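One thing: could you explain this record?
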Amino acid sequence: MRKVLFSLSVVGVLAGVAVAYLAGVAEPSLPPAFTPATNPYKNGIYATGIIESDQTSGENINLYPEVAGTVKAIPVAEGQRVRRGDVLLVIDDTIQRATAEQLAAQADAANALLDELRAQPRKETLDVAEAQLVAARAALKTTQDAFDKQGAAHAVNPKAVSLDALDAAANALASAKAGVDVATRQRDLIKAGAWVYDVRNQERQARAASQAAASAKALVSKYTLHAPADGVVMAIHPAVGSFISAQGSYDTYTQGMTPVIVVGTSSGYLNVRCYVDEILVPRLPGPDAIKAQMSVRGSPVKLPLHYVRTQPLVTPKIELSDQRQERVDVRVLPVIFRFDPPEDLRLYPGQLVDVYIGQ
């Protein structure tokens, strides 16, 4: 029994030694997927950069519609090169086009009425007034003759014509004279044409209607987005049938509003927007002496950068996280560099890179 226990003890000791040995053996570490970025300058400073299209000012061209509506057509695709003025997106303009046609018809009616006022007096209307005056004068002549005859008869024999008949003839004569006066004034009124105040008022109404029609017609053109410059379509956020507005397009993933279309320049160069921590800004070299090197993440490629400009505005560091509601204490200075993309490596705007700046 003692021999068995001793043998088991020896086996246990040997097993413990073997486990301890195996546990102490360190496995060789895996090689890095790519060479980490290193500082090529003696006193270089580090900054995180974002690749963007080459712009003389600003960043990419973010397009927003000036009107709201449903996307009807998108005749371009992401990555497509476009020329200035090319149609990028069409919004359904059915209602606005009908409104423009209605206002144009109202403007035509207002101008037609103005032309009618300016064309007065109308010959046919004036001819009617002249005929009415002739008829009134003829009626006056008939009434006058009847009154004269009755007056003469009464003068010869007062009993031949009663006073009532003579008064009735006198009243008829006065009415006929008034009729001639009314017909004359009516003829003169028509002959004078439209009242100047009516013409002025109609001119203003016609002008207002024409301006409203022109405004509605101009608004129809806002339902089509055109390329503001030669470039490349970098992103199209809405799909056909989506609703967009002046705030942009709703993004399903970020649940926020984004530009409808993003256009970059078609230049052979790309820019790198570097965000230098405000603590390191005093160590930033001057524009004449500044140098920089970019390391592409996931690749051993290191590219020299050429200084373009410094955006002289220190802002909160939210560009990389895009969290506008978070409290950000770190502030950064944007510095823009340019580089010539290598043919054997594809780089895209929006890609993060590591940048060292020195002199």
Summary: Helices lie at 2-24, 94-119, 123-156, 163-192, 196-221. Residues 316 and 327 are 9 Å apart (CA to CA). The chain has five helices and 17 strands. The two ends are 82 Å apart (CA to CA).
